[in-house]
Write a structure and sequence with these properties.
homodimer; 4-stranded mixed β-sheet; alpha/beta
Chain lengths: 339, 339
């Protein structure tokens, strides 16, 4: 699903967050305590949100750097090698001597379609002072965009502060409430969030209302995208110019009008946008200037669906790519492929 | 618990069987399907019966070689490195390019004291032709003893046939009935077996009767040891000279007389032997010449017991050491430490 990379100069992006190794063990049936069973198959894959998203970005044609931590154990070596093979620059990673790399064992039961995850965090955990000023400056040099998955949040905050001073745009993946998220959101130019996040974070009565709330609460934010699984995604984007003098449109009515424009009977993914620079209001929240864009998801037959692991991260990679290439409004269309 | 190695020439032993990496993940409670949990601790350890036993033998002062198979993945590299660091010669290992190394994920629930094992066999499996004649000959050169854990049984049988022609004694670890076990037992000079094995293999009415049965059925066998957990172990040893003209003693009576000689109130491990060269009989089975030796296990307080994983393999390592050093009748005493 990844387009081939353009061969000219590749835009640099920097990500800070989680890397991991995933061991996916397929079993005939989920074990009971004290059982001794054999797996039917094993798949070893690099993982971690930042690792996945930057791998996706690299495959699309960006030149990503990663700030994260692993150990010099066997798992850590395979994490670094896999990232490097995919074109992710790992020279700003902290590699601990001893301890263990982050690692997730996933028991895949294909009969009951369950995936049980046992995550072992990296040890010792990353301390922000492990990222030296020199390395931070070098990692940010020439970078067009910075991305956080809200892991290693103390280190992430140092990176965000420096990036913000340098006016480098920041993308935050707001999957769920985590320690340090609010601090990072204050720096965010772009937010991509999970279906439940906007309401969870704002307490709003619906997702569209919550999106307006987020843009009002986070003044640096240029857009927020919420992914909605099989329903596709929504993007609320702030105008550069103020539309305060035009008539107000209620955000829920606006979404309804977009939904009516889309041919939902088609299995192909569609993308529809409202007019630009509308005054969009939400009951009891306020109003802002911008436009709403809706993408539907392609209806993929279940027998063609192999594995949705990392689909959200791949989406982030595509958003990084689109923004870095200056076509941020194309982002929404990548949803079609990735959700 | 391992004695330090003598500094003179180290006796060479060759083992053929299983190597593995064990990932022991301690969890707060055993997961339900589709849960996403974090482990509290992770321990990564080399494993596999042959890997463990030969590591024990090396620590006691032998110079072990191993025939087994791993992949050149991260796990395989750590398997090889750990064995090499312990002084096990891995130059006769087959290392596959691609595939995966044998690997066991163990979910340790300390509250309910359960250990749930998911074993992923190595892939692709070892083919006997992967051990070349040249390597087999080189691996056997100068070796004083060969050991099998009854894994990779087709390869093991090739090694056993060649070792037998060269009159190199063979030790078989008979943990349970497995494919190829009977073929290997026919070559065995020494057998160490688990508590339930003698009766399971012979169908005899008691363990002592089953031991007599094993020595009658396997004419090359010099002794059989059965480990009995907290009850210690039993060894039935064949005499070099025939005692057919002396009176017959029933093996169950003989064991009872040994049990009476031992001070069971002591928490220290004890070892008692019958007279040598008795004529020992078992009802409905027959009789043989030899002696019976009983070892009790040290009574270790549960708070001092850290982990019994690999205890049986360490016992094998000690038996290899004792026989190779020409003091095979001391073997029984190692039980005191290892069971």
């Amino acid at each position: 699903a990844f387009a081939s990379a353009p061969q000219q100069s590749k835009p640099l992006v920097l990500g800070c967050g989680a890397v991991s190794v995933d061991y996916l063990a397929t079993v005939a049936s989920f074990p009971n305590p004290d059982d001794k069973i054999r797996s039917l198959a094993l798949k070893v894959e690099g993982g971690g949100n930042a690792g996945n998203a930057l791998t996706g970005a690299a495959r699309l044609g960006l030149s990503p750097r990663i700030i994260s931590k692993a150990s010099n154990d066997a798992l850590g070596k395979s994490i670094l090698k896999e990232l490097q093979d995919d074109g992710v620059d790992t020279s700003y990673m902290t590699v601990a001597d001893g301890g263990n790399s982050p690692f997730t064992y996933i028991i895949v039961d294909n009969q009951t379609k369950t995936r049980t995850c046992i995550h072992t965090p990296g040890y010792p955990p990353m301390k922000p002072e492990e990222l030296t000023k020199e390395n931070l400056f070098a990692a940010l040099h020439g970078v067009e965009m910075v991305y956080f998955d809200v892991r290693l949040h103390e280190t992430a905050l140092l990176v965000a502060e420096e990036a913000s001073q340098r006016k480098i745009p920041i993308l935050v993946d707001a999957e769920k409430k985590r320690e340090g998220l609010d601090d990072l959101l204050n720096f965010a130019s772009y937010v991509v969030c999970s279906a439940k996040f906007p309401q969870a974070w704002t307490g709003a009565s619906s997702t569209p209302v919550a999106l307006v709330h987020m843009l009002l609460r986070l003044p640096n934010l240029k857009f927020v995208i919420v992914t909605r699984g099989e329903k596709g995604c929504l993007m609320l984007e702030r105008s550069m110019t103020d539309a305060s003098e035009t008539e107000e449109t209620d955000v829920e009515d606006l979404l309804e009008s977009l939904e009516q424009k889309v041919d939902l009977s088609s299995s192909m993914a569609k993308c529809v946008a409202s007019k630009s620079n509308l005054r969009i209001s939400a009951d009891g929240v306020g109003s802002m200037s911008g436009r709403l864009i809706m993408g539907t998801a392609e209806d993929i037959p279940s027998e063609e669906l192999i594995d949705t692991t990392g689909a959200g991260d791949a989406f982030i990679g595509a958003v990084l790519y689109d923004i870095s290439c200056g076509k941020q409004y194309a982002s929404i269309c990548h949803v079609l492929v990735f959700t």
